[in-house]
């Protein structure tokens, strides 16, 4: 089947030929005929399947250009998706003169929208909140509306627009044609379609997987503190064009963008705190190539479609598979290839399994690029720069004479001069990375014979009651954990548990002194509050370690009722407690 088989007019077909579209996607082939016939439609399809063209082409094909009041209203959940739909309409209507499409969304001044509405528009694409504002101000006349589209209806309901959507549906002409598109069919959307749509054709496009087969999906096991260094190495070795890095919160996106800029990359953040004009400017910079890396939250990147995006990096892997699918769907669109890389901490391995089960696609584990791989890439780029410079014949002659002059006057081999010029060219940043240092093995302190179970915690020959010096080395501090010899713990268990839960490296550990009832561990003095929070939930031998800076004084810990703390009670009780979930939508 081709688009010519769908009974579309020649102006639309000509625009599609220029864009390069030849055959309709499954949702387009199934949806366009009933929409051209005037039927209401409910379309169930995942993002990235071509839904926009499925409703835009029939609307453009049947527009009455003489009517100045809006004929079509498309509701979208986000500003970004609304702008994307507007761009698609303008592209498909490229051979129809005088078609006016207006985006209407919050964050943009009313003046621009009011001026356009007064001049007359054929198609309005907007978010529900701003459409309601215009209806209440009586600045948007929908009395002659012929077509109404709900795009990503399930997302609009999740974002709290259910009441606004129903108000708009109820306040528009009953004779309008309605198309509802959604990735899922929850009960609310089912009820809405039964109430506001007239005998709709239900079209479901089943896909073998919920992620595009053109996207290569990989993941990297990395400690939380090492994510930024891992991202930098990946940027060094991956051949990317444009990239989106997803963070879980607004603060994280700002921090990542700032650190990337400090490392010399052109990066910017978009999230809910960024003003709309700045968001649009940033996205346009990404499209034009002035910006290479966009750091975003889920909501801010919803509906973003930029051809340059070759890579998506989940700096924080999402906790639900639907968000994962939406995120990586920003690349590999319209048949293009793409790469998705997810950072996974040791505690998040289960999320990879959940994603693989839901998408029915395997994620390939990758290794952190080594120093040798990074240096190989840097050398290749350096070679390219030399090759380019050699092609500039006029400049080569001039500098060849300069080098020859130096060689004659200083009696230095030409190869040494070339090496010295390379040092000058590299600037303050070394061309090659130094090899990763071998982790230093720290010896455990030699215990005195008196340091045995049942003995005082005293140094050899110290007067009774005088405690051993627990001063840590510079940059380190002594921490006390509530497990000791009585709990049959060994240093390797302590190192393994703290490293896995807190994302610590081997060289973050100093001396470990295991006492009968507790242990002392030498760790960096500047452990962050996040690291301490993660370590506070660590268990060794089934017992909460209750890590805290060591004060040198014994502590008796009870709860408010005078009972032992919860880690001293039955470990089986832990499974009966309900997990606590925190959510931050960014």
Description:
Its EC number is 3.6.4.13. It catalyses: ATP + H2O = ADP + phosphate + H(+). Residues 430-473, 543-586 are annotated as: Disordered. It is an enzyme of class 3 (hydrolase). The structure is a single chain. The chain has 586 residues and is of the alpha/beta class. The protein is built from 20 helices and 20 strands. It has helices at 10-19, 26-36, 51-61, 79-92, 110-119, 128-137, 153-158, 162-170, 187-196, 227-237, 250-262, 276-288, 298-301, 321-328, 349-359, 371-390, 393-410, 414-426, 491-502, 529-536, and strands at 41-44, 72-75, 101-104, 123-126, 147-150, 177-182, 201-204, 215-221, 242-246, 267-270, 293-296, 309-314, 338-344, 364-365, 476-481, 512-514, 519-524, 539-540, 543-544, 548-549. Helix 5 links the parallel strand 3 and strand 4.
């Amino acid at each position: 089947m081709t688009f010519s088989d769908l009974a579309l007019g020649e102006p639309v077909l000509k625009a599609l030929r220029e864009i390069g579209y030849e055959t309709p996607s499954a949702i387009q082939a199934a949806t366009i005929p009933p929409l051209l016939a005037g039927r209401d439609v409910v379309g169930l399809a995942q993002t990235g399947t071509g839904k926009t063209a499925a409703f835009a082409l029939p609307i453009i094909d049947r527009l009455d250009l003489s009517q100045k009041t809006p004929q079509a209203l498309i509701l979208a959940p986000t500003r970004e998706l609304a702008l994307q739909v507007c761009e698609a309409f303008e592209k498909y209507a490229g051979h129809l003169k005088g078609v006016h499409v207006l985006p209407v969304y919050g964050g943009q001044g009313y003046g621009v929208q009011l001026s356009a509405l007064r001049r007359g528009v054929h198609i309005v694409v907007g978010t529900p909140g701003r459409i309601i504002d215009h209806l209440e101000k009586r600045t948007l006349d929908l009395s002659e509306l012929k077509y109404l589209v709900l795009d990503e209806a399930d997302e609009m309901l999740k974002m709290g627009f259910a009441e606004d959507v129903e108000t708009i549906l109820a306040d528009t002409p009953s004779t309008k044609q309605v198309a509802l598109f959604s990735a899922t069919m929850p009960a609310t959307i089912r009820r809405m379609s039964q109430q506001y749509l007239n005998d709709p054709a239900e079209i479901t496009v089943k896909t073998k997987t919920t992620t595009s087969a053109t996207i290569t999906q990989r993941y990297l096991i990395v400690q939380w503190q090492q994510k930024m260094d891992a991202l930098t190495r990946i940027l060094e070795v991956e051949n990317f064009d444009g990239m989106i890095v997803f963070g879980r919160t607004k603060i994280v996106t700002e921090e990542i963008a700032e650190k990337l800029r400090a490392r010399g990359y052109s990066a910017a953040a978009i999230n809910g705190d960024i003003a709309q004009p700045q968001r649009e400017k940033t996205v346009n910079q990404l499209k034009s190539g002035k910006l290479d890396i966009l750091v975003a939250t889920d909501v801010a990147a919803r509906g973003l479609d930029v051809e340059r995006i070759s890579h998506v990096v989940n700096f924080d892997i999402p906790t639900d598979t639907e968000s994962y699918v939406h995120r990586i769907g920003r690349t590999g669109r319209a048949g293009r290839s793409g790469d998705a890389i997810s950072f996974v901490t040791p505690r998040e391995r289960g999320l990879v399994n959940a994603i693989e089960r839901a998408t029915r696609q395997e994620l390939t584990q990758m290794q952190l690029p080594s120093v040798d791989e990074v240096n190989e890439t840097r050398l290749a780029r350096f070679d390219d720069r030399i090759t380019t410079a050699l092609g500039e014949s006029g400049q080569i002659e001039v500098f060849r004479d300069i080098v020859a002059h130096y060689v004659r006057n200083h009696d230095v081999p030409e190869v040494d001069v070339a090496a010295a010029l390379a040092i000058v060219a590299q600037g303050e940043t070394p061309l090659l990375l130094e090899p990763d240092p071998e982790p230093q093995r720290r010896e455990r302190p030699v215990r005195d014979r008196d340091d045995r179970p049942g003995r005082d915690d005293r140094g050899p020959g110290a007067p009774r009651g005088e405690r051993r010096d627990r001063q840590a080395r510079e940059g380190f501090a002594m921490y006390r954990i509530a497990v000791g010899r009585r709990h049959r713990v060994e240093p390797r268990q302590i190192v393994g548990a703290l490293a896995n839960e807190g994302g610590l490296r081997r060289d973050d550990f100093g001396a470990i002194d295991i006492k009968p009832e507790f242990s002392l561990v030498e760790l960096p003095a500047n452990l962050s509050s996040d690291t301490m929070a993660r370590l506070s939930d660590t268990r060794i031998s089934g017992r909460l370690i209750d890590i805290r800076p060591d004060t040198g004084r014994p502590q008796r810990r009870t709860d408010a009722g005078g009972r032992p703390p919860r880690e001293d009670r039955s470990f089986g009780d832990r499974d009966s407690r309900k997990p606590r979930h925190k959510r931050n939508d960014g």
